Amino acid sequence: MIRVNHREMDFHGEMTLKSLIEDLKYSFPNLIVSINGKLITKDKYEETLIRDGDDIRIIHPIAGG
Amino acid sequence: MNMTSIENRAEKIRNAHKLLKRFEYKPQEVQRGYANKTLYINISDNTIEAKEVAEEIKEKFVGGKGFGLWYLWNAVKSTTKWDDPENEIVISPGPIGGITQYPGAGKSLVVSLSPITGSVMDSNVGGHFGPLMKFSGWDALEIQGKAQRDIIIFIDGNEGIVEIYEAPLESVNSHILAEELTEIFAKSEEDKRNVSIVSAGEAAEHTLFGVLSFSFYDKRKKVQRLKQAGRGGIGTVFRNKKIKAIVVRYKGVTGNSNNAADVNKIKELGLKLHKEIRNFDKEQCRMREIGTAHLVEIMNDYDLLPVNNFKFGSHKDAHKIDSKVLVKKVVQGSPDGCWHGCSMSCAKAAKDYELKSGPYKGHKVVVDGPEYETVAGVGSNCGIFDPDYIMECNFYCDTYGIDTISFGTTMAFLMECYEKNIINKDITGGIELNFGNADAAMEVLHQMAKGEGFGKIAGMGVRRLKKLFIEEYGADPKFVNDIGMEVKGLEYSQYVSKESLAQQGGYALANKGPQHDEAWLIFMDMVNNQIPTFEDKAEALHYFPVFRTWFGLNGLCKLPWNDIEPEDNHTTDEPAKVPEHVDNYVQLFNSVTGKSIDKEAMFLQSERVYNFQRVFNLKMGYGTRKDDIPPYRSMGPVTEEEYLSREDRYDKQLKNLLGLEPEGMSTEEKIEALREYKYTQYEKLVDAVYKRRGWTEDGVPSVELMKKLGMDFPEVIKVIEEHQKGGFR
């Protein structure tokens, strides 16, 4: 089990941050992403592996529209 | 239209003008963002007067929407209707409006009593009119009364002249009218850029959601482009007053026409933002490339793009109308701003677009837009995924003077009613109004312009259509009230709010009705899960609507606040507020006006006007809890089709939120259980928001709050106290 934005999600092996964001269809271009409190920059999404139990925040920093 | 024909036509039009009134004044330079005078025109008796702007009014209402609300408050009684002569249209740009160094500073705010809500309406719009009017010497223009025959009003800010003409020969539709009047009032080809026109259109005469178009001259395309004050039917008020157009001509805009207190600081702030836009816009919101239409595919991905009257939030054909398609049809070489110096440049236009229907069939025209709201409103929400239809519909809505948001939401409602056999071909005059039928929607639009057939009925808007269908055609009141997407009489703008309680409040609690310019909290709430409790949501529904009011007080566009963000915004405590840009605005205000506000004082400016507007609603017989109730379609699935389309999601909600076992329940039972839960949640949210805002349980700003804000004008307190006694009106 992992947590994304305080919500539980099933964990399955071979998850990268990039694949997680794609699975969630989070296409907003300007995300702020952290895993267990550590900020991850966009260029590291592909190489960052998700581990069981990770606490992930994917913040869309906009109150616009 | 070729040059010879426009010149000949302009000559005939000019010769038919009959001068009704001429007023001369001595143009004064704007000082620190204020002209310190407003222009009052009564077109019933052709009175034209200059009024001084009292310091207290600047202090309490700042400008823009604040001025509009104040002047309108004083002009109307609680019994005044939108089509009474005493109703006014007030246009004001605000003190920062017209600066050229910081992006997004050319907005005008328009305020009037709305035909569609019956209460006070505000609508913001780009184009050059507001700044040129201010530099002509006027912080606001108040128009009251009703003319007997069609008129135009002309303001020459260089000569110091205001004139009212009887204007029998001008076209009414905006794309032609703007060209005719530019030809008449510009002194030369070069002078055309100094002319801006406010107009409506033929459909504004026959519907309740008419818009005002504000023009700006595009030197490259050699045409007046049109931006819209879209919401709430102020174009309908305009034509009801028999105004064809207001024209301003002012030559001499400079980098410091506002005579700002510290122009160098403004330059410094602007330069910083220009650099952000240059460096980051391509990877952030692509405003320079395609404008707000970049949102189409994003909203589709997050299940937020309205489809078939807000039933669904995505569609397999959305890619046919997304920004990648639109960019090919619209962008022609370089980005456009709707005011000088705006490097955000979100305006887009297609030139030589050949029309396929209507009175201008075969004409090659400039189509301004489409914005996201238009693509979603007239497109996906009506089940139409045809970019050519969207362009054509956008053009005709603009020139006829129709709000694309209200048109889209109304057509979507009608299409669902048609598919549910609430209305049929006998009622529509043979038009098959199924979802996806672009030809049918276009036919209704052309009928609106002529005031004929089913178009005239459709132009009443969702609230009146619901009543008609219930009373005349035996529609089930519960069903049509559930699917009719309006609050306070105003049609919803184009976001699906079903999975965001905060946004349900953002829409239904908004002062003028469900427009997203007060609060757009869907990502914070539904996606980021940053505001999980009622108190968290209430805090957001206090902060953002009040904060965002400030743009409208100052003649500013909201987009440069958060559609571009500093590189290090993510490291701040509250990135959704974009703290650095808020700081910019504080400094901008101080640099223009010479005052010395901080963030708290900035918030106070907005909070004053926000609460004043709520009391204004109360004065007009609205503005209480009963007026803040959303239709269920904005909260959850109304029909089995909707429920089943996202069955897993809703079943999980029943299980996790309500502790129910969905396996043994029918879909109908599930829908009812979810509905009861969601309305209960909504009521709790409303309680929390009212409390946070300092309002009573009935949603009325307390006397204590108005005193604390310094807005305890006797007539304001009287409205509140009369309500508390249960006797107002």
What's a concise summary of this model?
The complex is a heterodimer of chains A (65) and B (729). Helices cover 11% and strands 28% of the residues of chain A.
Write up what this structure looks like.
By secondary structure, chain A is mainly beta. Chain A has one domain (2-59): Beta-grasp domain (Ubiquitin-like (UB roll), Roll), CATH 3.10.20.30. In chain A, 11% of the residues lie in helices and 28% in strands. The longest helix of chain A is centred in the N-terminal third of the chain and has 7 residues, at 17-23. Chain B is α+β, with helices and mostly antiparallel strands. Chain B has 3 domains: 3-249, Aldehyde Ferredoxin Oxidoreductase,  A, domain 1 (4-Layer Sandwich), CATH 3.60.9.10; 263-491, Aldehyde Ferredoxin Oxidoreductase Protein, subunit A, domain 2 (Orthogonal Bundle), CATH 1.10.569; 501-725, Aldehyde Ferredoxin Oxidoreductase Protein, subunit A, domain 3. Helices cover 44% and strands 13% of the residues of chain B. A 7-stranded mixed sheet of chain B has the order 1-9-8-13-10-11-12. In chain B, β11 (212-218) and β12 form a beta hairpin. The N and C termini of chain B lie far apart (52 Å). Chain A binds chain B through residues 5-7, 25-30, 32, 39, 57-65, and chain B through 283-286, 295, 297-298, 301-302, 495, 516, 519-524, 527-530, 532, 540, 544, 558, 561-563, 565, 569-570, 575-578.
